[in-house]
Amino acid sequence: MKGDDMSTLIDLTGNRYGRLTALSIAVRAKHGKSTMWLCLCDCSTRTIVQSQHLRHGKIKSCGCIKKGPKTKKFECFGINQTLRKWSYFTGIKQHTLYSRINRGWSTERALTTTIKTSE
């Protein structure tokens, strides 16, 4: 498990990296190059990513993270709203809500956990 060349290929099949699941090798590595993996994102988009970018957390989605949560609607207390509107209603910055949800927090926890301020 030292590298990505053909003699020490690390099998990533089925592993999850952020919103991506590694499906299969798309391009085998040549000496000194990184193997490319076909991945399926949670948004159903397929994308090809270098194995080192997956393993080191540089790539976590097909790009939908950058576009998604700001327009995606999140449900809490039976109400569906965008993060922008939830930010307005809760007084919590949109960036903070986005970061919390991106780190795996439930919508309810992200919206109801108060921000600690120093006195």
How is the topology of this model organized?
Blueprint: E1 16-17, E2 20-27, E3 36-41, E4 46-50, H1 51-55, H2 64-71, E5 73-76, E6 79-82, H3 83-90, H4 94-102, H5 107-112
Antiparallel strand pairs: 1-2, 2-3, 3-4, 5-6
Quick overview:
It contains five helices and six strands. It has 119 residues and is an alpha+beta fold.
Plain-language structure description:
- With 119 residues, the chain is α+β, with helices and mostly antiparallel strands.
- The chain has two domains: 6-55, no CATH class; 64-112, no CATH class.
- It has helices at 51-55, 64-71, 83-90, 94-102, 107-112, and strands spanning 16-17, 20-27, 36-41, 46-50, 73-76, 79-82.
- The longest helix is centred in the last third of the chain and has 9 residues, at 94-102.
- The termini are far apart.
- Mean pLDDT is 82; it is low at 1-6.
Question: Helix segment count?
Answer: 5
Number of strands: 6
- Give the radius of gyration: 18 Å
**Content-based structural category:** alpha+beta
Q: Which oligomeric state applies?
A: single chain
Which strand-content bin applies to the residues? 15-25%
Question: How much helicity do the residues have?
Answer: 25-40%
For the residues shown, what is the average pLDDT?
A: 82
- Kindly report the spatial arrangement of strands forming the biggest sheet: 1-2-3-4
Shape: elongated
Flag low-confidence runs. 1-6
**SSE run:** EEEEHHEEHHH
Number of domains: 2
Q: Terminal Cα separation, in Å?
A: 49 Å
Largest sheet: 4 strands, antiparallel
